[in-house]
């Protein structure tokens, strides 16, 4: 292995900021951050921010035919 990094998609500063805020905010209920890849821009973007949601509910609202990345706490 040569150790080269391969960029699949870009993660913009705006997405990094949303992730940082989500990670460090005080959650009294379960929250989720749903991210998706914009294929045209080859960039990760925020799809939805949800509060007070259980895993079962989250599974029901996610599209089965479109990949999503979930941050849940």
UniProtKB/TrEMBL annotation:
<feature type="domain" description="ADF-H">
    <location>
        <begin position="5"/>
        <end position="73"/>
    </location>
</feature>
<dbReference type="GO" id="GO:0030864">
    <property type="term" value="C:cortical actin cytoskeleton"/>
</dbReference>
<dbReference type="InterPro" id="IPR029006">
    <property type="entry name" value="ADF-H/Gelsolin-like_dom_sf"/>
</dbReference>
<dbReference type="GO" id="GO:0071933">
    <property type="term" value="F:Arp2/3 complex binding"/>
</dbReference>
<dbReference type="GO" id="GO:0003779">
    <property type="term" value="F:actin binding"/>
</dbReference>
<dbReference type="GO" id="GO:0071846">
    <property type="term" value="P:actin filament debranching"/>
</dbReference>
<dbReference type="Pfam" id="PF00241">
    <property type="entry name" value="Cofilin_ADF"/>
</dbReference>
<dbReference type="GO" id="GO:0034316">
    <property type="term" value="P:negative regulation of Arp2/3 complex-mediated actin nucleation"/>
</dbReference>
<comment type="similarity">
    <text>Belongs to the actin-binding proteins ADF family. GMF subfamily.</text>
</comment>
<protein>
    <submittedName>
        <fullName>Glia maturation factor beta</fullName>
    </submittedName>
</protein>
<dbReference type="InterPro" id="IPR011171">
    <property type="entry name" value="GMF"/>
</dbReference>
<dbReference type="InterPro" id="IPR002108">
    <property type="entry name" value="ADF-H"/>
</dbReference>
């Amino acid at each position: 292995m040569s150790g080269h990094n391969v960029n699949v998609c870009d993660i913009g500063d705006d997405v990094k900021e949303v992730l940082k805020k989500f990670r460090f905010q005080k959650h009294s209920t379960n929250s989720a951050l749903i991210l998706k890849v914009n294929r045209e821009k080859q960039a990760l973007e925020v799809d939805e921010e949800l509060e007070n949601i259980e895993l079962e509910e989250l599974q029901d609202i996610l599209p089965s035919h479109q990949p999503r990345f979930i941050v849940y706490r």
